[in-house]
Amino acid sequence: MSITSSVSIGKKPELITLSDAATSKISELIREEEDANQLVLRVAVRAGGCSGFAYEMFFDTEVAQDDEVREIGDFRLAVDPESAEMLKGSSLDYVDGLNGTGFSFSNPNATKTCGCGNSFS
User: In sequence order, which residues have a C-beta less than 8 Å from that of residue 57 and are 6 or more positions away?
Assistant: First the structure.
């Protein structure tokens, strides 16, 4: 995995690092949206999933005052404060291959993950 961009918050550990492939795919997807210049990529962690918490990624037009917002390539990334705590040091990759296609998180804070890779505890 080749790393392109990282988002840092002050002197805290990196929040989330995006691979070149993830950055490229997100840029491609956001450009396809009608209101692309008003959108941010929101990455969040919510209660649920088979391991306790689930990752969420979606385009959003709302940015809260306490969100962590950073420029990544040609788009903005927004993370709420609670999710930021659980995502510190994580990386996001995009894979397009015979064994599957999609985004995958690698989270050093996860003590347990499920087989689908979309939830953790």
Answer: 41, 42, 43, 44, 103
What is d(CA 47, CA 49) in angstroms, rounded to the nearest whole number? 7
Rounded average pLDDT over 24-50 = 90
d(CA 3, CA 10): 20
By CB atoms closer than 10 A (0-12, 13-18, 19+), residue 65 is: exposed
Give the right CATH number for 3-120 from 3.90.76.10, 3.40.30.10, 3.40.50.300, 2.60.300.12.
2.60.300.12
**Distance in Å from the first CA to the final CA of the chain:** 24
Burial 68-77 (b: 16+ CB within 10 A, else e): bebebbebbb
Rounded to two decimals, the pTM is: 0.76
